[in-house]
Amino acid sequence: MISKTTRIAIDPVHYEENPVETVPAPEFMFVPGENTRCRAYELSIKEGEHVYLYQKIGVRNGGYFKQNMFAPCSGTYLGLEKHTYRNGKSIDFLKFQNDFKDERDPSYHERSDEEIFALSPEEIIAISEEYSLVGLGGSSFPTSVKLKGTDHVTHLVVNGIECEPTLPVDKLLMENDAEELIKGLRLLKRCLGSEHIYLCIKKKYAGLVAKYQELFLGEEGMEVRPCRDYYPQGWEIGLIKDVTGIKVPSGALPRKQGVLDINVATVVSLYQAAKYSRPVAERYLAIIGDGLEKTANYRVKVGTPIRPLIEKCGYKDDGEVKTLIVGGPMMGGTVPSDDLISTPCLSSVLVYEQGKAEREHPCIHCASCVYSCPTGLVPAEIMNAYKAMDKEKIKALHPERCVECGLCSYSCTSHIRVTDYVRKAKRVAKLL
Fold it and tell me: Which of 288, 420, 290, 296 is nearest to 355 (CA)?
């Protein structure tokens, strides 16, 4: 049985120690019609039509940008089918029958590294736009939009921290895909002209830190920055300040301060798009939590159904209600079903024993939420202003600065889901 909750205990298990299992492409693969940033889409294929691997099949409209859509396999387009998206909603997915030929369009061209590193900044940005690359650390913000701009980026902060507790996927990528990560950094250096590139890794991963310190020998301007292990260390503004000393004002664009933050998986996706002329084609996927018989780290093709992988891990048959979370234990969202599909920004599914639900009690004004807030807000006051629908006070308390890290809810001694109220207040503030 699956239930919905927003309060769990942080699991201390080190899931990165699980070996990575590569999952073969399945017979049926899926592409979401809409996604987190694009609600509308138009298709350029018809039901029953043959498609090539990574063929352009349509376009999504995000308002100020568009995203091309691509076939996840060669085979036949079968029409629309409902599945659960990572935000918990049931949406239309395009269904494809895989012919397992991996046949590319005859015009396909794979670039040599010489060709890749001869690309101009404009051509690199165009590739990221053509293949709809997005931030793979969870933001799903269009990479091309992030790379465009006239402000010179002197400092590039490469985020390998994996902010959320327990998640292992960025560490797995850095361990297994070092060559492509370094080539992606060279490509970004060519695109942005950054003098300083910092690869941020948790200090506790001493072996990984040493590995990249050795790999960076001879790479001008690139260095490893070991970082403290705390939550929310991967938060953009906080990480930039810790690594570079640059203070990015709340609401300001980091690029205006001469700095950009980018996730390690996004860097690899840029190199792969340039090299293989393809969108994000596969991701590391962690299926973890104390509600499973065993946990696993997979390498899966984007478009793969996830339910069989969860079932392979096995739900614990102990009569306890299970909670499914997509994303991390702090900022992830609960989903009502395991009928999920692998998408570029889905890197983990957490299955927890729900346990006994904690009943909310009245706020005792202990200020735990204030002390824990990384952006200096007063979450309890924002919550009270929202409950009273005092719009002037909501505006004055600046809920838009909230990064939704979940620490106010986690630290609340009265078990109040404070983050939910602040999130709602943010939506009100946007309308004022």
Answer: 290
Q: pLDDT tens for residues 123-139?
A: 999 999 999 999 998 88
pLDDT band at 1 (very low <50, low <70, confident <90, very high): very low
DSSP string, 67-93: EEEE-SSSEEEEEEEEEE-TTS-EEEE
Q: What would the mean pLDDT of 224-251 be, rounded to a whole number?
A: 90
Q: How many residues does the chain have?
A: 432
Residue 67 and residue 59 in contact, taking contact as beta carbons nearer than 8 Å = yes
CA angle 323/329/330 to nearest 5° reads 130
Cα–Cα distance for residue pair 233/143, rounded to 1 Å: 22
Which amino acid makes up residue 181?
L
pLDDT of residue 358: 67
Closest CA to 403 of 62, 137, 37: 137
pTM: 0.92
Structure tokens at 14: 């080190």
Q: Taking the CA of residue 5 as centre, how many other CA atoms within 13 Å lie in the half-sphere pointing to its CB?
A: 24
48 pLDDT more than 50: yes
Question: Nearest to residue 54, comparing CAs of 27, 73, 67, 34?
Answer: 73
Q: Which CATH architecture has domain 113-276?
A: 3-Layer(aba) Sandwich (3.40)
User: Where residue 5 falls among pLDDT bands split at 50, 70, 90?
Assistant: very low
- Which regions of 13-112 does DSSP assign to beta strands (E)? 20-22, 28-32, 40-43, 50-51, 56-61, 66-70, 75-84, 90-98
Output the pLDDT for position 302: 98
Domain map (residue ranges) of the chain = 2-106+279-353, 113-276, 368-431
Residue 76's DSSP bridge partners are 50, 97
Structure tokens at 84: 């659960």
DSSP-based three-state secondary structure for 323:
strand
- pLDDT at residue 7 tops 70: no
